[in-house]
Structures are given as structure tokens and as C-alpha cells.
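Researcher: Here's a chain I'd like modeled. Treat it as a single chain, no partners, no ligands.
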Amino acid sequence: MTYDLKITGGTIVDGTGKPGFVGDIGIKDGKVVALGKAEGAATKTIDAKGKVVSPGFVDVHTHYDAQILWDRMLTISPWHGVTTTVIGNCGFGVAPTHAIHRKLILQTLEKVEGMSLDALQAGLGDVWPFETFPQYLDAVEKRGVAINVAALFGHTPLRLYVMGEASTERAATADEIAAMKKLVREAMDAGAIGFGTSVSVSHNGYGGKPVPSRQATVEEMDSLVSVMGELKRGLMQITIGRDFSTKAMAEVSRKYNVPVTWTALLSYLYGPGGHRKQLDLAAEQRKSGAIVIPQVSCRPLNFELTFAEPFIFDVMKFMNELAIEDAKSPGTRRRAYADPAWREKLRSEVTPLFRQWWDRTTIAWAPSARELEEMPLSEAAAKLGKDPVDLALDLSLDNDLQARFRVAVMNFDEKEVAELITDPHTIIALSDAGAHANQLCDACYSTYLLGHWVRDKKTFTIEEAVHNLTQRPAEMFGITDRGVLAEGRPADVVVFDPATVGPGPLKRVYDLPAGADRLVADANGIDAVIVNGRLVRQNNKDMVAANDKLPGRLLRHGRAA
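Model: Modeled as a single isolated chain. C-alpha cells:
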């Protein structure tokens, strides 16, 4: 046999968690046809001696729903070995959307997911090639993509589509719930792998209003999830809040035999040591017959924010009210930030957790005071004889609210993070790729896991880490033909150097539509990325062009057609 591609001499780690072994892989017609021994010639051969050869990584928490329509390469995920992504998380997306609501849905993404409105409008244009969710999937499939994509059906566009702007104001009527339920079934029939939603108090959309999903009752949630119970497939993904607790998730999971995964269980989310109670609860729920799996992150949650859109502060009522007023009367923020009484309110009304944030804040960019850049805010404040809140707001006002501050919000306690990522009842995810693009970059979580937690900390073996990046997330999300290297399976493959793998430093680039900026990180030690048998990245270079026929597949119902 002559192979299209052969990978020789590498340590094959197949994704199942079994010990790796040295061998070859033969690939033909997009599939693995030889594993271990691959005798015969090949059109192209990759020497993987001293390297690890694994399945492509599966990133189940991304927000590429809009970006996929202008960036078919889905940068930067493939740079870091990701060959399959899941979109539609937290219930956000761009379909279904009536033409009259297009700006509203983009403004919601701008507010809640930190996306540039200018980039969204320039990238999507005035004429969208879809209205309904099935039409959206058809458009994605027709355009093509470099890596594989599976989609959750988002609650926020669904509610806006059925209820209009009232979706941000009130509960749905029985007729509206029935209409939504019908569209959930339509989406599942078209290929959605599940249903995404959010009740998080931090998720506010256009004009500072709650995103539509936050107005849903438990009865509405139950009715929509019941569709997956009837179909006997699919999962629910939810960003949690007080109105739909983990107890409610367990009840829904048991009632309809539907897995529920929630975001996000982070170190210090419930205070020091508070994560242990949630881990114990997840174990108890599993014993009771419910499948409720918290998503955890292997990286510190660092946000780089401005006081023009201070996303992480929006959970505070008075800060969100300010956003609503500023939307009605631009300049409200500036007046408040300059007001000594308002500053005192910010100092006095924040929780102890927020006060600790000031101690973990770094001045990232301030043109009016370049000498303070990369200096801890508390250190700079002490040097200037100012209160940290006053200094942050002074720098913001001096720089048209564009001064940037990097805040270690959560997940900075490595002992607690290690407990979270090694617990058998959690799943490592939360890259948020495509969202908060100018505030954070965790799309490199896969190489960080392999570099930091495997090589440096030795918390995982390579086999354990690869299992957590491949088979485990694929199975959790019902993606049935990815995540394992085996004969007859699609050839999604990553070749990496265990001695050097890891993310490079963050850097700011201006490559989004309309020249909008984002943070990116190059990958170290990723030698080759193969999608459905085709080499898409090698030695940090794209091996396919964005205008090529690309090898990624839309995974309807969790698998390629």
C-alpha cells in the first residue's frame, strides 16, 4: 500500500490513557489505515522520532460562532493542536436571528463575550447567508473550515428569535415555550449536539440588560431539555447562576438521562477551599444517577480589561447600572469615574474577593504613564501615594478609558487548580477561544497543560493529559468519531515534542476585521497538525491556505457525515 501520509518512529499515545508505544502511523483517504507498523511507501513522510504522536485535541468550550464565518482557519486553535471545537457555549451564537435583530445579537456578543462590534459587523457584513439554525449549519459546511466543528444550539438567540426584545425582560408564555421547544427539535434534527444556556449574573447583553437566557424559568429550561430526552441524545451546557443551581441540573439530568456540564468551577470561585464542596457534590450526583460535570481550567484566569468595558465587574449591580446608563447617555461612565463619591462606592461596596483583585492587578498599558506599565497596581499606587482605585480610574480617564489592567481573577492557587484538573468528575476545558479576544487568550490551554502540568509539575503523565485533551471531552460531548487513534478512524493527529511543548508569551495583534485587536500566543513544540488526513500546520506554519478547500468537517450529531 502507498500511504498519503506516514508518520514514523514516534511514541504513539492513542488517547485512551493506555501506555504509549513506539511505532508508525499510515494514513490514506483521510483515515488511519495502519497503526504500529506501516510498511510501504508514502507520498509524504514525517519523522517523529523523539516526539509524541497523539489524536488531535478536542476543545469543547469555544465561541467561534461568528468568527468561523470570516476566519475559516479558526485561528489560533490549530496552532495548539486542536483539531475539533465545539461552538454555541453559554447559549450564545448568531442563529437563529431575524434580520431586524442582527445588530442586537452582535451587541450582545460585544458586551457579554468581549467581541469587537466593529469586527463583528465587518466580518459578517450586511447580508447574512442564514436566518435559522439549520441554515447556519449549512452555511458553515458550505464555506468549509480548517478543523472540525460541532455546534450547541444557543438559548439566547433562540429566545430573541421567538420573543423579540421582550426576551430580555420577562418569562416566556406557554405558547412561546412551545415555539422554542419546536426550534430545539429542529436544531437537533439538523445536527446540533446539544443545548447551551446561561443564568450567570455576569452575563449582560446590549444596553447592560440580562442576556435573554437569564430570564428563563426552571420550567422553560426543563421543557427545552426534554427534547433531548425524547431524542435520547444530546447534552446541556450551562453557565451557572443562582436561578438554576447544580441541584436543578442534577434533577434535569436524572429526569431525561441527559448529561449536563457547567462552567466554570474555578479556584477561589467559592473562596479558599470552596471548590472541594463542589467536587464532593459532583461525586454525590454521579452516585445518584445524575451526570453533572463541572468544567475546569488548567490556567490562571487572567483578564486584561479597560474601564470602558470592565466585564468582570458587571456582576456588581451598581456597576451594571452604570453600563445601562452609559448606553443611554454616553459619558456617564467618565462622569462617575471622576466623582469622589462614586469612587468611594467602588471601594466600599465590592466584596472581599474583589478587594483582593486590586492586589493581583498589573498595569498593562497606559500611554500617559509608560513608566508604570507592567508594574503591580498596588506597588504603583504606593509609589505615587495614591489609593489603587484612584490610580486605576485616573489612568483610565487620562487615556480615554482605554488604559488596560491585567487581573488574576481566579485559578491562581496552583494547589487548588491541581485538585480541580485531576478530579475524576471534572472536565478540562474553558478555552473561551473566539471570545474576550482583546482581554485574554486561553486557546493555548492544551499546550499549557502539556508543558506546565505534565513536563514541569509532573501532575499528569503524558498519557493521562492526552486522554483529557482527546477521548474524554469527545465522549462527554457525544462526539463519536474523534479523540482516539485507531485503524479506520478519521486521521486527526498531532505530533509534538514533550521537551518543548507549551504556549509562547501573549502578544497583541490587530488582525481581526476592521483592524480590531486581540491577544494571541504562538505554540512551541507542535511539529505537525493533521485534520482528516491532511497536514494543516507544520513547524508553526499553515500548510493550507484560507482560500483552499479545507479538510475540517461539520460534525452533525457528533460525527462527520
